[in-house]
Each structure stands twice: as structure tokens, then as C-alpha cells.
Amino acid sequence: MDPVTRKVHVRVPATSANLGSGFDTVGLALDYHDELEFTLSSDPLNMAAQILITGEGENTLPRDESHLVVSTFRRACSRFGLSKCGFIMEAHNNIPQARGMGSSAEAIVAGISAAYAFSHEGELDRDVIFQYAADLEGHPDNVAPAVYGGMTVSWTEDGQSEIVQGEVVNTGFRSVNYLVDAGVRASIFVPDYELSTAQARAALLNTVPFADAVFNVSRMGLLIGAMNPSALAGEQDPNELLFTATQDKLHQSYRAPLMKPSAELIDLLREHGYAAAVSGAGPCVCVLHNGDASDDLNQIATAQLASGHWRVLHLNVDTQGVQVARL
To answer: What is the arithmetic mean of pLDDT over 178-201?
Structure first.
């Protein structure tokens, strides 16, 4: 199959998963993006990938076929029927690496979306991209908001798979979008240290107390309403709802020893009434609030921000998810 265009621009949002109570299920797209441009070579003998990176990871990310975007793009091009060819990928990265803001999900979604745009006319089929991305990532909680935008709740239906090009593909991933009030903001405190998802996952228990599971189920149910309080009956303080909805007993306390500065910052912010939680697997800290709280949060975290070990991003919610433009 010949590509439908020679150049594609892709824009993918950062994400924050879990949001406290919604462990491995909830994700939120943030108005903070990586932007990538793919240009296909017109030389049929050129099969090489030329990789240009600016911003986050420019001194650490690989510039060969092992780069996650590149390897994903190659696989997706094959899946969608495109012949292998050379290309230039220019990545302008804003999303921090290994911090809990969905950098790996972004890379996978970017590679698949670019391949889809080269191989198909019209709008992205987001359901196709979501299924493929979740299969490659292994779980759907970060890729769902990266694909669809907004707040998503995702799950996996057991036993659903099919054979695609000789590979067993999990087709059981599902996701739904929930409305987020226009006033909801996310402040992300970004530390200067990393934590791998594998390390964070290894710190978890294989079983948890029944009461702790019930605790999180109740907060998770509340979280959906807290993110869109106008849909609730009666008068509710949205920030009080967010504070309660982000409580957790399933994962954060077990991971806290791996990210002590983050755990200390979460405690400090919650002592002041803010809905602070670990962003994804950490070590970023996500603070949800309805209305502009940036000045107050900056004041509370004065010592951390002045230390040079932390920075803060005050962000809106991204409602669009991945965007592509054929150039």
C-alpha cells in the first residue's frame, strides 16, 4: 500500500493515571503535549530512520530503531499495510520521562496514530488506535486518555483476543469518557528524580484487606461525580469532594518508600485541604482542584520549589486526545 501523504504531524497529551482511588482504571488527559513530525523518504532504497529530539529526553533517549515511538511506528505501519521505508522523525518533547505523566503511553499512541494517518484517509479511528495501543502498553489506563482526551475509566474483558499477522492480540480493552467540569485544573509537581513503573509495581501487595478494597471502591465512585459536580443533586463543595475522592489505600502507601520526597509533598498539600495524589506510578504529584489555586499551591510548596528539585505545571484538562494533521 502507498501512503496517502508524505508528512504527518502528531500531537499527544500527557496523562495522569490513578488519581488516588482509581488505581489502574482512571486516567486524565492534560493540556501538555509532545509534538512529533514524520516525513517519509521518497527514495525507495532508503529504509533508515533519522531521529531528531528536542526537549525532554534529548540527551538520554535513543536515536535508533529502539526508540519506542520508532519501533511502535514500524509495527503499526506493517499492521496497517504500509511497506517499510525510511523517514525522519522530529520529536519536540515536553512530557517528562519516567515521572508518571504517561510518557510511554504517549510514545505508543504517537507511533500508532502517525502510521494510521499515513495509511488511511479521514479522521482517526480512535477505537482502533486505543485497542492497539493498550495491547502494546499492556494496560489501558494511560493510553485511553491519551487517545480520547478528558477523564477515562478503563477495564479489560478477559479472554478476548484474535490473531493478527501471526500475533495474539488482546482485543478486550474497554474505556468510557466521563465529563469533567470546565473549572477542574490539575497542578503537577515534577521532581528531578525518576522512578520506573516496574519498581513501583513491584512494591505492591499481591492481596489487600477487604476493607481497603471497599474504601477505594467508594472513593472511586465519588471521583466520577467530583470531577463534574454540576451533575450531582444538591449543593456540594467540589474541592471537598475531590479531596475525599482522591483518598487511597491500595497503592500509594506501599510505593511511598520509593519516593519519599513525593510522599512528603502529598502529605503537606493534603494537610492544607488539597486533593493531592501520586501521578501514575510516580514520582510526580498531581493536585486536582476546581478553580485557580496556583498561587496558593505555589505558596504551600515554597520550600520544594525553591530547592531546585521541583517544578510545577498548572494545567487544564485536555479534552481532545491525540490529534494528527496530514501536511
So the answer is: 95
- Kindly report the pTM of this predicted structure: 0.95
Domain with 99, as residue range(s), is: 7-179+318-326
Please give the DSSP secondary-structure letter assigned to residue 282: S
Give, as one character, the DSSP assignment of residue 181: -
Residue 1 lies in a domain: no
pLDDT number for residue 233: 80
CATH number reported for the structural domain that contains residue 255 in this entry: 3.30.70.890
Can you tell me the distance from the alpha carbon of 215 to that of 243, in angstroms, rounded to the nearest whole number? 14
| Total number of domains constituting the chain | 2
Residues 175 and 210 in one domain: no
- In angstroms, rounded to a whole number, what is the distance separating the alpha carbons of residues 124 and 141? 20
Name every residue whose Cβ is closer than 8 Å to that of residue 256 and which is 6 or more positions away in sequence: 262, 263
User: 200, exposed or middle or buried, with CB in 10 Å at 0-12, 13-18, 19+?
Assistant: buried
Peptide bond into 283 cis (omega under 30): yes
Average pLDDT (93-97) is 97
Q: What is the pLDDT of residue 48?
A: 96
Do 48 and 169 fall into the same domain?
A: yes
Polymer length in residues for the chain: 327
- Do the beta carbons of residue 254 and residue 205 sit within 8 Å? yes
190 and 163 within one domain: no
> pLDDT digits over 115-171, tens only?
999 999 999 999 999 999 999 999 999 999 999 999 999 999 987 767 777 667 777
Q: Which residue has the higher pLDDT, 171 or 240?
A: 240
Q: Are 117 and 110 in contact (CB under 8 A)?
A: no
